[in-house]
């Protein structure tokens, strides 16, 4: 029986290993993590992450050929294939601070693998890592090998949160990069055989190590660039009276461009886009390519601009002040169908409103009050470091209340901000909400969820990103 061990029980490791276990009943899969609370949650009825379909997959396999354990060294030493899915946060200090990936956790994982291994291993990079990480990992393993042979493979994940299980069941492609040596090719073949249990062979792409590592960064950079491009257009649409949805539809019909990732919004979030682009910027700078680095930096700048522009619209529309006003925030996760708040635009929007002394009432169906308070208290990039390195009890924001009902959040509010495109927000009784709000009642739609005209007919003053402006807002400056 092939034994697989995955180091890291997070958003990538947990779902990926669960699906491998389901699709490969003859393979034993163990997910290990040093976090006792996380492993306890994976072994409980309440999984530590929310992902549609994940619950069913885990419960079908858990205890049969899928196991979750804190006995890291035991299972690493017994495994044939070791997936490493640890954090690669952006460095907060030192060389490359604010851009480069911090490989501390990867390096410690590699040293531990070398220490406990008693047989040859295939070590698979599952985390998103900078190009040439495999070379560094190879050196660590080789110099500590005690005669054991290690093969390093790059197998980047291309999961989208909210559809991760679906993406794993039917991936666009599985990418496996390895050394162009007999040992490297043999390792590629072994990992390919695992995926071949359910993925058609033509969708399994085999490359050299560096191509696989760079392809992940490149894919996320291209996707983020599309979002920043349409968001830049949304500002022009508002200035000219065009409708960004109509523009995106027309552009998306060009088969060379396509419609995906052309939805204007308050900005992109998630654990990958910003981090990977900053990583790409740093690699470009290190390789003497400042013009290329500056090009990718602009994608981040447009994303920051979009969030700031949204806050400015709110303040300028509400008589240039939100001080002491109750603003209902609907949605805090970075997108629907996930409880993940990493780099969510809601953090910057909420901080901007709090800085202007607004009182926030926040509702998200999957995000806890503890998580929201933590996110609004942490410094930039701290979210990606292990919990024990983060503040134990972040300062609670007094201007925030977190409620578990959209109607409660909006009661007596001066304004509503929609920051996540949860389906339930489309079906709210907006007449009831309007009746219970302060007047004039403002609604700022950061995800283009609602029908602006229907809400204007009720009586709302509506701002939707990239849509023709409400008469109330039209003649006001975009910046307070």
UniProtKB/TrEMBL annotation:
Residue numbers annotated as active site: 272 (nucleophile)
Biological-process GO terms, alphabetical: glycosaminoglycan biosynthetic process; UDP-glucuronate biosynthetic process
Residues in UDP-glucose/GDP-mannose dehydrogenase C-terminal domain copies: 328-452
Keyword vocabulary terms for this entry: NAD, Oxidoreductase
UniProt catalytic activity: UDP-alpha-D-glucose + 2 NAD(+) + H2O = UDP-alpha-D-glucuronate + 2 NADH + 3 H(+)
Chain sites annotated for binding NAD(+): 8-13, 33, 38, 86-90, 127-128, 161, 272-275, 342
Pathway of action: Nucleotide-sugar biosynthesis; UDP-alpha-D-glucuronate biosynthesis; UDP-alpha-D-glucuronate from UDP-alpha-D-glucose: step 1/1
GO molecular function annotation: NAD binding; UDP-glucose 6-dehydrogenase activity
One protein family per Pfam: UDPG_MGDP_dh
Source organism superkingdom: Eukaryota
Any one Gene Ontology cellular component term annotated for this protein: nucleus
EC number: 1.1.1.22
Similarity comment: family membership: Belongs to the UDP-glucose/GDP-mannose dehydrogenase family.
Name of the protein in its database record: UDP-glucose 6-dehydrogenase
Protein source organism: Daucus carota subsp. sativus (Carrot)
């Amino acid at each position: 029986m092939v034994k697989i061990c995955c180091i890291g029980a997070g958003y990538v490791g947990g779902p990926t290993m669960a699906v491998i276990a389901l699709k490969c009943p003859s393979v034993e899969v163990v997910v290990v993590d040093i976090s006792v609370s996380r492993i306890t949650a994976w072994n409980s009825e309440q999984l530590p992450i929310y992902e549609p379909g994940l619950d069913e997959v885990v419960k079908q396999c858990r205890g049969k050929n899928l196991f979750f354990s804190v006995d890291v060294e035991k299972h690493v030493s017994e495994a044939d294939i070791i997936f490493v899915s640890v954090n690669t946060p952006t460095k907060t200090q030192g060389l490359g601070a604010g851009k480069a990936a911090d490989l501390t956790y990867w390096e410690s994982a590699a040293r531990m693998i070398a220490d406990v291994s008693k047989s040859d291993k295939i070590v698979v990079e599952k985390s998103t890592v900078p190009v040439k990480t495999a070379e560094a990992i190879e050196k660590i393993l080789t110099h500590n090998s005690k005669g054991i042979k290690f093969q390093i493979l790059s197998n980047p994940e291309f999961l989208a949160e909210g559809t991760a299980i679906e993406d794993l069941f039917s991936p666009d492609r599985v990418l496996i990069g390895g050394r162009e040596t007999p040992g490297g090719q043999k390792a590629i073949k072994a990992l390919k055989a695992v995926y071949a249990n359910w993925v058609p062979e033509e969708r399994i792409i085999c490359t050299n190590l560096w191509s696989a590592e760079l392809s992940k960064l490149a894919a996320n950079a291209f996707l983020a660039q599309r979002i920043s491009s349409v968001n830049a257009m949304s500002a022009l649409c508002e200035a000219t009276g065009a409708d960004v949805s109509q523009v995106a539809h027309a552009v998306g019909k060009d088969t060379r461009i396509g419609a995906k990732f052309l939805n204007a919004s308050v900005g992109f979030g998630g654990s990958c886009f910003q981090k990977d682009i900053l990583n790409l910027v740093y690699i470009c700078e290190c390789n003497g390519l400042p013009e290329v680095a500056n090009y990718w930096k602009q994608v981040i700048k447009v994303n920051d601009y979009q969030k700031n522009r949204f806050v400015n619209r709110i303040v300028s529309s509400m008589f240039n002040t939100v001080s002491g006003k109750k603003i209902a925030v609907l949605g805090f996760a970075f997108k629907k169908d996930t409880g993940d708040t990493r780099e969510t635009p809601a953090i910057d929007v909420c901080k901007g409103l709090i800085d202007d002394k607004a009182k926030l009432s926040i509702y998200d169906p999957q995000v806890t009050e503890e998580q929201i308070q933590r996110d609004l208290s942490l410094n930039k990039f701290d979210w990606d470091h292990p919990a024990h390195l983060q503040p134990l009890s972040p300062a609670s924001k007094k201007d925030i209340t977190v409620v578990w009902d959209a109607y409660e959040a909006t009661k007596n509010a001066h304004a509503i901000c929609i920051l996540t495109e949860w389906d339930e927000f489309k079906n709210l009784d907006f007449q009831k909400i309007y009746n219970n709000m302060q007047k004039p009642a403002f609604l700022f739609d950061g995800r283009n969820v609602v029908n602006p005209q229907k809400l204007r007919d009720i009586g709302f003053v509506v701002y939707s990103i990239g849509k023709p402006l409400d008469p109330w807002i039209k003649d006001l400056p975009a910046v307070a």
